[in-house]
Write a structure and sequence with these properties.
This protein is an alpha+beta fold. The protein is built from 1 helix and 10 strands; from the N terminus they run H-E-E-E-E-E-E-E-E-E-E. Strand 6 and strand 7 form a beta hairpin. The protein binds FE2/S2 (inorganic) cluster (FES). The site of FE2/S2 (inorganic) cluster has 11 residues, from loops.
Length: 157
């Protein structure tokens, strides 16, 4: 009898502790939800591509592993303040990478053949022109020239 009473008390304590744990878990769940919601709406969800080996204008060694994304149509790298992409059709495009709306890094999208800002949805053509706002100013277009052996991309203003 004494043992059974002790067991009941222990079970009660156990259930109470579960109740507190559930409440605590719920609180953490809610906080996590709120945190992720606010983070999603204000942070840059841009995946980080492999940074290129260059720093901007100049030559880009296309054989370097850091630039390997440029071997594939649709691939792109960030190269200093610019984005360099191998666009639809296989040519190379270099544009300023900061969206002219609020500075988020743009991404190249092969299917749409455009440069997309994941922050508020601006879209730019491969020449840098604004196709969809809220950005109102084009991206800066740089000149690109591929070496005859296809191993070096020269980027100039
Ligand atoms: S920062 Fe690019 S659309 Fe707003």
């Amino acid at each position: 009898m004494e043992t059974q009473k002790t067991e009941q008390l222990n079970r009660g304590e156990f259930l109470r502790s579960l109740g507190m744990s559930s409440a605590a878990l719920m609180a953490f769940y809610c906080m996590g939800t709120l945190t992720s919601c606010s983070k999603d709406s204000s942070s840059d969800p841009t995946p980080t591509p492999t940074p290129g080996t260059g720093t901007g204008t100049g030559t880009l060694d296309l054989t370097a592993s850091g630039n390997s994304a440029l071997k594939t149509e649709g691939g792109y790298i960030y190269n200093g303040s610019m984005i360099v992409a191998r666009v639809k059709g296989g040519s190379y495009v270099a544009l300023s990478r900061a969206c002219t709306h609020q500075g988020t890094n743009v991404q190249y999208r092969l299917t749409q053949n455009d440069f997309y800002c994941p922050n508020h949805g601006s879209e730019f053509s491969p020449t840098g022109a604004v196709e969809v706002g809220p950005a109102g100013t084009p991206l800066t277009l740089y000149k690109t020239a591929l070496s005859s052996d296809g191993n070096t991309l020269t980027i100039t203003t």
